[in-house]
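the two lines:
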Amino acid sequence: MDAENTFETVHLLLEDWAERFETPDPTRLDVYMTQIDDLLPAVVGLRVKRLGYLAAIVGLDPGIDMNDLEILYTFCTEQLMIILRFRIPKINGSVPSLCDIIPSAESFERELREMYGVNIVGLRNPGHLYLPDDWKEGVYPLRKGVDLRTAFQNN
Amino acid sequence: MEEIIERKPFEVQVGPQHPALKEPGNFQFTVDGEIVTKASVRLGYAHRGIEKAAEERNWIQNIYLVERICGICSHIHAMTYCLAVEHLANIQAPPRAQAIRVLVSELERIHSHLLWIGVTAHEAGFDTLFMYSWRDRETIMDILENLTGNRVNYSANLLGGVKIDVDGEQKTGILKGIEILEERTKHYLNIVTTDVFFLQRTRGVGKMTQRQAEVMGAVGPTARASGVARDVRIESPYGAYDEFRPNLIIEQAGDLEARFIVRVKELFESYRLVREVLDRLPEGELSVRMPRRIKPAEFAIRVEAPRGELFYFVKSNGTDKPERVKVRTPTICNMTTVVKLVVGHQLADVPMILAGIDPCFSCNDRMVIVRDNRKIETIESRR
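prediction for all of em together
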């Protein structure tokens, strides 16, 4: 399937859930999704149509003053990249776990949870993957403006 | 009277100090006698704060930072970062630079695969093979030192090109070294496919079907040894790989023997590519000018590192520093396979199965704290 056909298939599959589609370069399609509840059906749809494998989950903090985090679920086909983009609130933001559909998502989700403080609903092992066991609760090192020195000054 | 003893699960901790490899990671294995019934992994012991630190450094400083994510595949990290940043800045390295990047990439792959053969042979108790392959690895390290000035962190990349060129004398040295290594590699392929004692440790061990490899998200030689036809250099060529194309090396057996065969055969492909690059090295400049500041944009790129698919996501914000550098290394993908594959195997097979994916904990753990007299510091505060 060439890029045009693949992107058209993704359009048809996700148009009901997507706010908009963008093509930043000829081999990449960004799908801006509105509701995080649409993540699981969208991923199931991509899997059923065999539209790529989950290559990474990227967390982004748009800035200290912003209320939301951005999460990019990156799927790759042979030559193309399909990125499902969601915004979730920084405070009490939750996303459903993909582990039941894609077992390899677990480590990506554990990293996202501990680095950005995103609650992953249904994550089987919510323990730390990278950070120490005694890492301070509520300190998420990849959020903008986090001051680790202050956060741990009493340790 | 016969006493009934309740069988309780027994947990064996392996690591974090040197769990089969000279890198830290912690594995918990639940065993029933000698058989593993459950496994889990705990990483992070080599976490160094690199993704966070990248946000505090400028575009140029970050080349040297990402190059230190991994000692063995330092070039692929730097090259991938440079390709991403060059794309954000809308510039392209000259053809000669792109070809030299491929040259160093393949030399690095040879280094990595030879090192892996030795490490995994050592885990199997085959120390003769370990010593021979590491002796031969010296040949490739000497080539890299002669070419770049460094044996580990090659530092060949610049934003906009490369900082090294290849002269006639270096070309002769590389070709001579490759010729020696090619002969040795034929010997290794023979050993890993015929030595009956070695095959007892590899054939049928850690078997992973193609379906399992796809479901578990395996990448690189680990996936190709299970019949997954995926090599980023071929399916989505980057840099000069559309000019210098490797052939796909794939095996179907999915066991440790297949992982040996794939990596050893990939060595032959790398030798061929090195010769091709040297033969058809384009003339011209080594670099182009790069702006200090980059307008807001983002770029995601994947490349084929020696251990498998490496993914970078880089976002710029109009300044001379990145907004975000995300690195997803192949080891984190393949690590999932280890904790699934060891279940049902003898505990004694675990080191081989772990080494079989060619894990790199240093690549995997990029972000950490440094403890010093109970103070926790980021790498930033130590600058």
